[in-house]
Amino acid sequence: MQRGMETVAAPVTLVVPCYNEARRLRPEAFFEALDETPRLRLRFVNDGSKDETLEVLEALRQERPGRVVVQSLAQNGGKAEAVRQGVLAAAAAGDAVVGYWDADLATPFDELASFTSVIDRDSNVDAVLGSRVKLLGRNVERRFHRHVYGRVFATAVSLMLGLPVYDTQCGAKLLRMTPAVRDAFSTPFQSRWIFDVELLMRLVARWQAEGEVPAAKIVEVPLRRWTDVPGSKVTPRDGVRAAAELARLGRTYGVPVAAR
Ligand SMILES: Nc1nc2c(ncn2[C@@H]2O[C@H](COP(=O)(O)OP(=O)(O)O)[C@@H](O)[C@H]2O)c(=O)[nH]1
Ligand SMILES: [Mg+2]
C-alpha cells in the first residue's frame, strides 16, 4: 500500500552539498534511502573539493544511474552557493519538490517521510524545515554550546522575521518550487554562513508582497533523531561571523521583516 502510493507520488529531489566529504560520505546510507524511497532523487553538488569527493560521487551515480545526478563546481564557493546552484539546476530540470540535506546525514534519511507528508498533505505549504527540538523520547544530540548558541541565534532570527521559527540552521529542508521559491534562489546569497536565514527573509518578503501569510507557508517538523556528526568544518569563529552576518541581513532586508 505504502509502496504503491509512493510510486505515484511526485519525485522529490534532494540537493546534497559536498565539500571535501570523501571520507565522511557513507554511500550505503544513500543507496538504502534510494531503495526505500522510490520517489527520491539525489543531486550531489561537489563544491570544489580538494579530496576525492568527486570520484566518490561518480561511483555513487554509476550504482544508481537515473536516480543520482552529480554536479561539480570548479571552485569552492561555500554551502550557500553550492545549494543555490543545485536547487536552480533541479528547478531548471523541472523538479517540483526540491530540498537540501547535509552530506554527513546528521539528519538521517528516515526523517524524510515526515517532510514529504507535510508537502503532500497541504498544498499551501511551500517550505518544510527540520527542527532540532530536544524532547524526551527523541534523540537530538547537539553539543551543549551549539545547542545554546543555536537557541539564542534562532530567537534573534524569530524577532527579526516576526515568525516564531525554532531552528533555522538545521541542514535538512524541503521546498515546493513555486515561482516565489525559485526566485528566492535566483541571485547569490550575501551571507555565507546563514543563508538559510536569508532564504527565509527573501521568502517572507515575497509572500507578504503577494498578500500571503508567511506563517501559513512554512512548517517546522521536529526531528526524532539528529546527531552531531564529527568532522564539521564550522568553528566557533563562524559563530561570531554568523552574528555579524545576521546584523547585516537585518540592514539589507529590513527589521522586522514580517508582521505576524
Ligand atoms: N563547511 C563547509 N561545508 C560545505 C561547503 N560547501 C558545501 N558544504 C557542505 O555543507 C554541509 C554542512 O557542512 P558541515 O561541515 O557538516 O557543517 P555543520 O554540520 O553545520 O557543522 C555538508 O554537506 C558540507 O559538505 C563549504 O565550503 N564549507
Ligand atoms: Mg554537519
Structure, explained:
The protein is an alpha/beta fold. The chain has a domain of 109 residues. Helices cover 42% and strands 18% of the residues. Helix 3 links the parallel strand 2 and strand 3. The site of magnesium ion (MG) has 5 residues, from loops.
Q: Segments where pLDDT lies below 50 for 5+ residues?
A: 1-7
**Main β sheet profile:** 7 strands, mixed
* Strand order in space, largest sheet: 3-2-1-4-7-5-8
The assigned structural class equals alpha/beta
Estimate the strand proportion: 15-25%
Globally, the shape reads: globular
Describe the structure concisely:
The chain is α/β, with parallel strands linked by helices and 260 residues long.
How do the strands and helices of this protein lay out in sequence?
Layout: H1 2-8, E1 12-18, H2 27-36, E2 40-47, H3 53-63, E3 68-73, H4 79-92, E4 97-101, H5 112-121, E5 127-131, E6 139-141, H6 144-161, E7 172-176, H7 179-184, H8 195-209, E8 218-222, E9 225-227, H9 236-253
The structure holds guanosine-5'-diphosphate and magnesium ion (MG).
Distinctive features:
single chain, 260 residues, alpha/beta, seven-stranded mixed sheet, two-stranded parallel sheet, 9 helices, 9 strands, globular, disordered N terminus, binds guanosine-5'-diphosphate, binds magnesium ion
